[in-house]
């Protein structure tokens, strides 16, 4: 198909570019985007970092992006096979803008681009992505203009530096021996895990790593690299029990998210991980470091879907919790504006001030390993401390009239004894503290997303089922 018939709005999303290879994302489109990236961000004469994941189309897309970028005067460093958080590390440590070719957890036929400015500042529709799309369309229609001096292309490997940087943030050398099953899902964690947690590039840690699907294969022959779906955790859960492991870790395709399984094979919720890591980061911030002076009340960011245990534990530990909307652009903006030390989301994205305010699943995993390795009890006992409430998980309902469904819920729950806020969708909270739930409309599909939490299972199930019945009412 010809690119002149392609509407780039189909692949340009709010935070990245994502489309079907050969249809809504092609080498010609990518080359135009590379040129527009340099022009919009005024990067001529500067270094641009380009890398990609293990999808079959990533190498050719990296080359096409580099061709477009150098045509407009940027010098490109090809990072080749990397995880998304490796790109963020490179953009932060090398102080250069960059592009990562990945479609994260999407199926094999997809690919996309995550872009960042120097310092790992994300490029979104509000910070340049819309302008990049417009200029890309112009270049596709009329060609990419050349300049007198095109840029150069070289290669640069960041894996060792990335691994050393993370090891310096969390000291795991004193951990008790742990058996750790890691499901890479044939994604980039198959490359980063041996480098960071194993002994491939650095001295070995006291861990026995049991690898699951470490072969880099963008066709995902074993299961989709999307651990948010419970079905994709089953192999890991079974392996943890079969091997008598202490913990299981599951990464998504580009390895920027990490999910945790305890020794019984049960998932540890991202909210519990957020609270656990927050506790450790508050302690670090209060102690101070060579980079940061000691802080009396470190700030922790959490989105409004995380368990209320998160702000309660943060406050109890002397931190200051800040609640924000769902979405990494909001979290990263709040991280920067608040000077927060850490941020967590219910979707298993974890953000660190010491990692350029960017998200990294590997660093979160290292904190969990450190917490587990510092004490003798199993992860199931450690995790219970951070999960005092019962949550529904996200329940999606496809409805034909979203406003009407929301109105029914507001009418039923807009009563005395219930507080409603509209930070992101509608959040209803019982004044007696027994329960809360959030109802949000999807930005792209006719879905309503429900998350509920209560003091006990019976209350949670009652609220959840009542709201679902209202939402799905014919």
TrEMBL record:
GO terms for biological process: carbohydrate metabolic process. Its cofactor is Mg(2+). The keyword Nucleus does not apply. InterPro entries: A-D-PHexomutase_a/b/a-I (IPR005844), A-D-PHexomutase_a/b/a-I/II/III (IPR016055), A-D-PHexomutase_a/b/a-II (IPR005845), A-D-PHexomutase_a/b/a-III (IPR005846), A-D-PHexomutase_C (IPR005843), A-D-PHexomutase_C_sf (IPR036900), Alpha-D-phosphohexomutase_SF (IPR005841). Gene3D superfamilies: Alpha-D-Glucose-1,6-Bisphosphate, subunit A, domain 3 (3.40.120.10), Alpha-D-phosphohexomutase, C-terminal domain (3.30.310.50). It comes from the Bacteria. Residues 11-133, 161-265, 295-387 form the Alpha-D-phosphohexomutase alpha/beta/alpha domain. The keyword Cell membrane does not apply. Residues 394-469 form the Alpha-D-phosphohexomutase C-terminal domain. It holds the Pfam family PGM_PMM_IV. Keywords: Isomerase, Magnesium, Metal-binding, Phosphoprotein. GO terms for molecular function: intramolecular phosphotransferase activity; metal ion binding. CDD domains: PMM_PGM. Belongs to the phosphohexose mutase family. This is Phosphomannomutase/phosphoglucomutase.
């Amino acid at each position: 198909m010809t690119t002149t018939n392609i509407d780039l709005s189909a692949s340009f999303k709010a935070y990245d570019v994502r489309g079907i290879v050969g249809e809504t994302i092609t080498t010609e489109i990518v080359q135009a985007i590379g040129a527009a990236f340099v022009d919009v961000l005024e990067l001529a004469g500067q270094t641009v970092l380009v890398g990609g994941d293990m999808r079959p189309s990533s190498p050719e897309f990296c080359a096409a992006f580099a061709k477009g970028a150098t045509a407009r005067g940027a010098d490109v460093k090809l990072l080749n096979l990397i995880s998304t958080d490796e790109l963020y590390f490179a953009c932060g440590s090398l102080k250069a803008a960059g592009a990562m070719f990945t479609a994260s957890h999407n199926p094999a036929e997809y690919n996309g681009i995550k872009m960042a400015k120097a310092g790992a500042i994300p490029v979104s529709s509000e910070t340049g992505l819309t302008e990049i799309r417009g200029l890309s369309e112009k270049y596709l229609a009329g060609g990419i203009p050349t300049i007198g001096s095109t840029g150069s292309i070289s290669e640069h490997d960041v894996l060792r530096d990335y691994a050393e940087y993370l090891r310096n943030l969390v000291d795991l050398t004193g951990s008790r021996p742990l058996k750790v099953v890691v499901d890479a899902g044939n994604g980039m964690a198959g490359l980063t895990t041996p480098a960071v947690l194993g002994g491939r590039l650095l001295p070995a840690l006291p861990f026995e790593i049991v690898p699951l699907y470490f072969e880099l294969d963008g066709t995902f022959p074993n299961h989709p690299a999307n651990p948010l779906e419970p079905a994709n955790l089953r192999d890991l859960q079974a392996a943890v029990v079969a091997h008598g492991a202490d913990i299981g870790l599951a990464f998504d395709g580009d390895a920027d998210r990490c999910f945790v399984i305890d020794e019984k094979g049960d998932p540890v919720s991202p909210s519990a991980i957020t609270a656990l890591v927050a506790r450790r980061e508050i302690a670090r911030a209060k102690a101070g470091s060579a980079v940061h002076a000691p802080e009396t009340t470190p700030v922790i960011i959490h989105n409004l879907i995380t368990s209320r245990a998160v702000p309660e534990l943060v406050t109890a530990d002397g931190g200051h919790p800040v609640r924000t909307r769902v979405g990494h652009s909001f979290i990263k903006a709040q991280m920067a504006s608040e000077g927060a030390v850490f941020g967590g989301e219910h979707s298993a994205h974890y953000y660190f001030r010491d990692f350029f305010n960017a998200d990294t699943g590997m660093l979160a995993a290292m904190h969990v390993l450190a917490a587990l390795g510092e004490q003798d009890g199993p992860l199931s006992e450690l995790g219970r401390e951070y999960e005092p409430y019962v949550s529904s998980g996200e329940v999606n309902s496809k409805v034909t009239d979203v406003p009407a469904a929301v109105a029914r819920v507001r009418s039923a729950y807009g009563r005395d004894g219930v507080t409603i806020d509209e930070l992101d969708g509608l959040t209803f909270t019982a004044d007696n503290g027994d329960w809360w739930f959030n109802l949000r409309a999807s930005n792209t599909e006719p879905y309503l997303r429900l998350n509920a939490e209560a003091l006990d299972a019976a209350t949670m199930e009652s609220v959840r089922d009542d709201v679902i019945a209202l939402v799905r009412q014919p």
